Automatic annotation (TrEMBL):
Keyword Transferase: no
All residue ranges annotated as the S-layer protein C-terminal domain in the record: 600-633
Pfam families, sorted: Bact_surface_Ig-like (PF16403), SlpA (PF03217)
InterPro entries: Cry22Aa_Ig-like (IPR032179), Ig-like_fold (IPR013783), SlpA_C_lactobacillus (IPR024968)
Protein name as annotated: NlpC P60 family protein
Keywords, alphabetical: Signal
Positions of the Pesticidal crystal protein Cry22Aa Ig-like domain: 420-487
Signal sequence range: 1-23
Keyword Ion transport: no
Entry superkingdom: Bacteria
């Protein structure tokens, strides 16, 4: 049999097939005798059976064909009805071993689901819309030059389901420190920094997520509402820095439509290990992590109290709202116990700033023994509560005892706000906005000479101050009201000369500011040197700072106003040989410092362990012990044997 190029039937040949009923006489005339025709048919059928078989191909293979159309004709074909690109791409889907040599001068016709594949357009229309798992019947026929069918074969073309895409993601938990400044929560730079801790993989391959994919970053502390503004995450963040030990959740939302994520859009892991979730309604991914704010271990473990949405720790005074102020203002002989039992229901203790669990307060948690119910005055009651580790925090609140209150007693108005907050150095007038009337039925003003205020506010020092106001009407009846004034960090214009009081042979850092975002400069001031200062300021934690001119500030903890050595307190390093034991909290440890009260390291000494010491010194009233080299520990948590 003479070999020739494989040929496919075009439009003309298709027309001949349309009149197939007249094919029989044509064949009988050409093929003599008929047995020769049967032999030729058998040979062609064998070749056809060998050449084309059932096929199962990936959807991606079909997509490639649809994207890059190929012809159904072999090189050298005379048919002008097909695309003239590669000849065998489509045929190879069927594992064709021979697409031409065994068919001689005959041609092949292909049809899909009954549609004659006379051009690429037909195949493309079928396969481009194919669904994964679909199966199509493809018919191949060998015909002679007159369109007579000599052999046929039907095969199945199945589109395989695509391989499942498994997307895993990790968003590494992170730790910051108390005093660290917060970064902008919506800047691309901040998003880029976040992405350093985010890893997304698709079938094991890393997905390079763009910062532009992040559409939202949210922060949530305890049971407080989520916020997209980190600066409002009270009380964890204050004045642009992390203010106290805590733990909170950070959640990021990513657009699956971003170019960096579009390839995995809609896919997530079903292994239960990935925190990545997908929302098809918004085409977004979300993932969250835990952020820990580290600080002093003792403070981090101690209980706190939640009142009116804010947290208060050991030593703080609860700023009562107007409702509780009125409830805890009682006439002589009033029922203090009942008023206090009602009030403590408004205060919720929790194990720590990180652990919101805790038992409700009971009467035995309150001490109001200093409240004299027989005498008018302002008294301080305390709440003391122990958490599940046995640590105790105490907070205070005022109780006011007044003369018998009647409808004819004067009414005091403390203005708005009742409990103001001001900054250090600000002016504060305790009488601004304060007034009183003769009684609730008599709006005549009580003159200032019949009003008084007990207590004072030191605007040079951060803290809480209690003021007690008393008004006396024309009948001689008195009323009392209490307010809490909170003074926060600020600056003053005080000047003078100071001395650096640190450790001989060492110096203290000069900072560019006293505020939360301060940074240490490369300057150091040696122990014992004298410097002129031009202003003072109190930071957000109540610590005093001194300004040496311009953006040069030093920490007041290391300052004295007499030359070190003349005050009776020695800062010299004294050699000793002793052994001591760490006395802190079981299960926790204390820090090792590179210098006394400076340069804290990441090393810890566990509670209950014993260590040999070689020297000691005193810094601002605290004894420090040297463990050898640049290793110092605070005597607050260390007991010499």
């Amino acid at each position: 049999m003479k070999k020739s190029s494989l040929k496919y039937l075009g439009v003309t040949a298709a027309a001949l097939l349309a009149v197939a009923p007249i094919a029989a006489p044509v064949v009988s005339t050409v093929a003599q005798p008929g047995v020769t025709v049967k032999a030729a048919d058998a040979t062609l059928q064998t070749a056809l059976d060998a050449a084309f078989k059932d096929a199962s191909v990936p959807a991606s293979t079909i997509s490639a064909l649809a994207d890059s159309p190929v012809s159904l004709v072999a090189a050298g074909s005379e048919s002008a009805d097909y695309d003239t690109v590669k000849a065998d791409a489509f045929l190879k889907l069927f594992n064709s071993a021979d697409q031409g040599s065994n068919f001689g001068t005959n041609k092949i016709v292909a049809s899909i689901e009954g549609q004659e594949a006379s051009s690429w357009t037909v195949i493309k229309n079928v396969l481009s819309n194919s669904a994964a798992g679909a199966t199509y019947k493809v018919d191949f026929k060998v015909i002679d030059g007159k369109g007579n069918s000599l052999a046929s074969k039907t095969v199945n073309l199945t589109i395989q389901n695509p391989a499942a895409t498994t997307v895993n993601a990790t968003f590494a938990d992170t730790t910051v420190k108390v005093g660290d400044p917060i970064s902008g929560s919506t800047s691309v730079a901040a998003y880029t920094n976040i992405l350093k801790d985010l890893a997304i993989k698709s079938n094991g391959t890393t997905v390079n997520v763009s910062a532009n994919a992040i559409t939202k970053v949210e922060y949530k502390y305890g049971d407080e509402a989520s916020t997209t503004d980190l600066s409002t995450l009270k009380p964890v963040v204050d004045a642009g820095k992390f203010a106290q030990p805590a733990g909170f959740t950070q959640t990021i939302t990513l657009s699956a439509n971003d170019a960096s994520l579009s390839a995995i859009k809609g896919n997530v892991s079903n292994d239960g290990k990935s925190g990545l979730t997908y929302d098809s309604a918004t085409a977004t991914y979300t993932i969250k992590r835990h952020v820990t704010v580290n600080g002093d271990n003792q403070a981090q473990l101690s209980p706190v109290y939640k009142y009116n949405g804010s947290l208060y720790g050991n030593g703080q005074t609860l700023p009562l709202d107007s409702t509780d102020t009125n409830a805890l203002t009682l006439a002589v002989g009033g029922d203090v116990a009942t008023a206090i039992n009602t009030f403590i229901g408004h205060v919720t203790p929790q194990n720590s700033i990180n652990d919101v669990n805790g038992k409700p307060l009971v009467a035995t948690d309150v001490d109001y023994s200093k409240v004299d119910q027989t005498k008018p005055g302002t008294y301080t009651a305390t709440i003391s509560w122990a958490n599940d580790k046995g640590l105790v925090s105490k907070v205070m609140f005022p109780v006011v005892i007044t003369n018998s209150v009647s409808a004819s007693a004067p009414v005091i108005d403390l203005g708005t706000p009742v409990n103001p907050t001001i900054t250090v150095g600000s002016k504060f007038d305790p009488w601004a906005g304060v007034s009183a009337t003769e009684s609730k039925n008599n709006a005549t003003a009580v003159p200032k000479e019949r009003m008084s205020v007990a207590g004072s506010v030191d605007t040079s020092k951060a803290g809480q101050y209690i003021l007690t106001y008393t008004a006396t009407n024309v009948l001689g009846e008195k009323s009392t009201s209490v307010r809490v004034v909170t003074v926060t960090a600020g600056a003053s214009t005080e000047t003078g000369t100071l001395y650096v009081n640190y450790v001989p042979g060492y110096g203290i850092a000069v900072w560019n500011n006293y505020t939360a975002d301060r940074k240490a400069t490369d300057k150091k001031l040696a122990h014992g040197t004298a410097w002129k200062y031009f202003a003072t300021a109190t930071d957000e934690n109540g610590n005093l700072w001194y300004n040496l001119g311009g953006n040069q500030w030093v920490d007041g903890k290391y300052i004295s106003f007499t030359k070190p050595g003349n005050s009776g307190e020695s800062n010299e390093i004294t050699p000793i040989t002793a052994v001591g034991t760490v006395n802190y909290v079981p299960g926790y440890g204390i820090a090792i410092w590179g210098k006394p009260a400076a340069d804290v390291t990441s090393k810890k000494l566990a509670h209950g362990t014993s260590w040999k010491v070689f020297a000691k010194t005193t810094v601002n009233g605290t004894t420090w012990y040297n463990l050898g080299g640049n290793q110092w520990i605070s005597g607050k948590y260390f007991i010499l044997k």
